[in-house]
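By convention, each integer encodes one residue's backbone shape. The lines below illustrate.
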Amino acid sequence: MGIVAHTDAADMLNAKARAEGWPFECDSKLVFDRPELTMLRDVWRSRAAKVGLPTRHDLGAHALKSVLRHLSILERVPDPERGSRYRVLHMGSYIAAVMGDKTGSFIDESIPKELLPRWTVPFDIILETRTPLRVVSNFEHEKLDYASGESFLAPLSSEAGEPNHLMSCLYIKPKE
């Protein structure tokens, strides 16, 4: 898949979510309810303007200090049998407390097989289009079924320049 417009990435994901009954909606406007996500968006955009697709090291822990508890970093790893898998490189302490610490594991080890595409398809599209997105979710996960969430998902590159890392910053609140 080639580079597509930001709105096309959100539209593609929203169409897929509606067709599959996935409980989330994406947008590329990146207008957040949470000020922390707005700050993170601005940090990501600032670094991207300077270096292209930033690496996780381009962002720096100091700039991300206020969101680290809510931040996860994932790496897309090629797999000859499955195409690719996502390994959790960092899971913020708040997210780990809610979902269990998955640092070092692959998400397919803790997400039921039938639910896995609703996680991996958005990740793949974000990396393939190099498009950051805002995602609003109503969770259908055993540990989060009471909650909704607002996330900033953004592509990152490896040190070699490959778009194979993903940053996810999630804020959870009770469903309304």
Notes: The beta strands are 24-27, 71-79, 83-91, 133-138, 147-156, 165-174. The radius of gyration is 15 Å.
